[in-house]
Design a protein that fits this description.
Elements: E1 7-19, E2 28-34, E3 39-44, E4 54-61, E5 73-78, E6 82-83, E7 88-94, E8 101-102, E9 106-113, H1 117-137
Length: 139
């Protein structure tokens, strides 16, 4: 998913399902964030996603890693992030097989329209301040 032009996203959560094919391989799914060119964050599960298995992967700021070998759902952490136009959030899977299938991701975001440099800067400062306050309160 790419942040559209003239918008800013505050990501609250993302969820997608990986359906692994029958091909024998240990996949290591996860999420990555980039600015359109450079990856600045990535996180992967440490438990292998084996053949012929379906698992729901979610990520959100403020949550830890929750995974088990026989899990049907895995949660991974995301940093509190303000994403600018052109920035991307995507799945990333080590050892992905040709017949494996990721569902369309479901994102929960606050989208802020760009309204000129001054207003935009003020919104970013306000969101950054809110994120820091929540981090201090562990919310």
């Amino acid at each position: 998913m790419t942040v559209p032009g003239r918008a800013v996203w505050q990501v609250h959560s993302i969820t997608a399902t990986l359906v692994a094919s029958v091909g024998a391989a240990d996949r290591k799914p996860g999420w990555c964030l980039d600015d359109g060119t450079n990856r600045f964050y990535h996180v992967h599960t440490t438990v292998a996603h084996t053949a012929n298995k379906t698992i729901v992967y979610s990520a959100a700021p403020g949550i830890g890693v929750v995974e088990a070998a026989d899990a049907e759902a895995v949660t991974l952490p995301l940093p509190p992030t303000i994403m600018l136009p052109g920035w991307r959030i995507a799945t990333h899977t080590f050892n992905l097989q040709a017949a494996d299938n990721w569902s369309a991701p479901v994102l929960y975001v606050t989208e802020l329209p760009e309204r000129g440099a001054g207003v935009w800067d003020d919104m970013i400062r306000a969101l950054s301040h809110e994120i820091l306050e929540r981090r201090e309160l562990n919310v």
